[in-house]
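Q: what does this look like with manganese (II) ion bound?
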Amino acid sequence: MQIRVLGAAAGGGYPQWNCNHPNSRRARQHDPAARPRTQSSIAVSADGSRWVLFNASPDLRQQISENDILHPTDGLRHSPIKAVVLTNADVDHVAGLLNLRESQPLNLYGTGRVLDVLAANSVFNVLNPDFVERRPLHLDAAVDLLDPSGAELGIRIEPFAVPGKVALWLEDESSGPNFGTVAEDTIALEVTATGSGRRFYYVPACAAMPDQLATRLRGAALVFFDGTLWQDDEMVVLGVGVKTGRRMGHMSVSGEDGTLAAFDGLDVSRKVFIHINTTNPILLDDSPERATVEQAGWEVSWDGMAIEL
Ligand code: MLT
Ligand code: MN
């Protein structure tokens, strides 16, 4: 199975358009230790020719352009992108669907909750319903992904709920402390190549590590995990925002109940941060925080990172 990181940054990308924090400034100055990153998405293929996108970022047009695996090769209208799987309805994960407009066949997978959100926004009908089939995912039910002709792609996903929050733009203040969030709002994926049996986990948003999740991830060959913030109050302390990571539905990398601590002892062979916010110091190759995560066995993903599993 081949995995390509199309985008490693969180919503807004790195550098975020309105961010003048030193992290972002260094990226704009082409500092080689501060590589820009587009918004989070990966592409996965079992056969090297048909690819599945996990989330569709607003930067998808650029991501396709920069990754020749996603270029058309066959006739005048073609795409290696055969399916898209959505893990939530964040702008950084669904807005890129608009780049896939016109009459190109593909399958679109998401929970009922996320597909309902798309259905309620008619702009997404630019994905011509005659060509793009929307296929509901059910929690804890494994699915063999299909290309639009109905052929198996050789990739099985099992979606499961993780702690999280409804997308920012769907928050309902009147619905109690978690803004009307339901389990289907934030899913993670167990992804298996049906031919080889190799598998990995994709967890780009996660607010906490309950025992059940830790048990599931224990011993995994590869986990991509939410790397949004270094510390919970990072944006507040920097004066760039009023929200904590917890408020946004993300556990933070450092701290007692942070991700480094949560994975300590889980025996995961390869641990990769993705969905990294423009303020997070682990983005910088030369930061002490980067050294700390690498010391703990983590990798910080970057656009174009390729993994063969
Ligand atoms: C998030 O991951 O918290 C969201 O992408 C934030 C946003 O929509 O800006
Ligand atoms: Mn996001």
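The CA atoms of residues 2 and 50 lie 11 Å apart. The two ends are 5 Å apart (CA to CA).
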